[in-house]
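Lecture notes, structural biology module. Today: joint structure prediction for complexes of two components.
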Amino acid sequence: NAGVMQNPRHLVRRRGQEARLRCSPMKGHSHVYWYRQLPEEGLKFMVYLQKENIIDESGMPKERFSAEFPKEGPSILRIQQVVRGDSAAYFCASSPRAGAETQYFGPGTRLLVL
Amino acid sequence: AQSVTQPDIHITVSEGASLELRCNYSYGATPYLFWYVQSPGQGLQLLLKYFSGDTLVQGIKGFEAEFKRSQSSFNLRKPSVHWSDAAEYFCAYRPNTGNQFYFGTGTSLTVIP
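The predicted structure, tokenised, for the full assembly:
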């Protein structure tokens, strides 16, 4: 009974490169949430997706960041032209339905921008 | 504005001593409340949650938390701390409408022998 899977666990990019972070939700879950944890801070909501739909992207930076959750395959958080300030841990969570009380978190992807 | 406050950035306790980590939230109604633990380099593990009913909730690893509506608090407690409890602890809530979680900034726990 696998939990939420994220890969890669660690990602190093140089400034200006692209970063792609993947999240496979728990089996039976069709709702995915992305959070960012900056150093010394708590997690901050970025985006909420259902299959093929972005439901709430109120926490996403307006530029360079995008997310998708296709009909088949994992959810992808994409960061274009990364900058040093993008260095953070990015966590994905999933739930079985909208409004579910609990979200289950993956192990995170630690992004380091050189 | 909705927020979660964890006033203690860092706490050090001796192994075997009792522990209380504070959490206060700011929200108009009673939200869903959670405590998560994060070990270094790891993801978040759910310790316990409160939705309604009995205000004292039991979680895993011997942790418990008490919801106090009058104080807007949801403090985490453990009667006897073990060295393996050293980690970062996050309080979070989810409003009873909406989908996102709001996290506190975390409390780092050090356990000394």
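Point to remember: DSSP finds no helices and eleven strands in chain A.
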